[in-house]
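Journal club prep — side note

Before the paper discussion, L.F. wants everyone to see what a predicted structure for a comparable chain looks like in token form. Sequence:
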Amino acid sequence: MTDASAAPPRPTRLIATDLDGTLLHDDKTVSERTITALAAAEAAGIEVFFVTGRPARWMDVVSDHVHGHGLAICANGAAVIDLHRGNRIVEVSPLDQAVALDVVYALRAAAPATSFAVERTTGIHYEPQYPPFLLDPAAVIAPAEKLLAEDFTGAAAHGPGDGSGAADQPVLKLLAHHPDLDPDAFLSLARTTAGHLASFTRSSPTALLEISGLGVSKAGTLARCCAERGISPEEVVAFGDMPNDIEMLTWAGTSYAMANAHPDVLAATTHRTESNNDDGVAVVIERILRGS
């Protein structure tokens, strides 16, 4: 049961929405209904922020649908990008390489079959055992120790930098995959094992963890962007479906879990809307714009 008719308690000044499983249909497209709703919100003076775990290079799917400021929050808050300037990264909250390597050692000890990938500002690199969900021809395939070395050199095909070394290619996320563990159990184990070192979350249906710098989250970066605009949490309406959305959803004054959301997201929010395939975000935006 959904309650998309519930009106936010204060006028809405900003809409923050996750992408996969939330704004996008399962085929990774944006429906015409949602495109129209987003444009209408912007025309009414409501800013729209896409807030996602995706890297900058996967943002073309929505680059035409942010107006005005043109900014989006990527990598679970580790990067802010300008969609109007070729998805250019304009702000980074990196994961320290030495800390990332400590996380690798801790997770290997706790769950020995874990394999890792390193998401830098310039692209992704991964261990030979890591399942490359989307092959990247520029990826370096090597043990995590090499991928996180101070003298690491990789191609700079996806962002700033000239490929000269690790300092020019900050780490945005460490990704950890386990072939057998339950996804939520893996997340719990990782937080217990290394939660003092970094921030752990997940957005995949598989046992794939996303690891950022300690304290880095969608919520933290969104809060900074809102503060710069004089927008309070009570003036924000947020949408999400997976554990990496929970902090953002609890920070926002009004939050909606998609009908297809993870149980923890449903428990963390007070409002529901239709599923991503049924344009749940658009349903709420249309209601907001009608003032009801």
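L.F.'s comment for the group: Residues 156-164 have pLDDT under 50 and may be disordered. Keep this in mind when we get to the figures.
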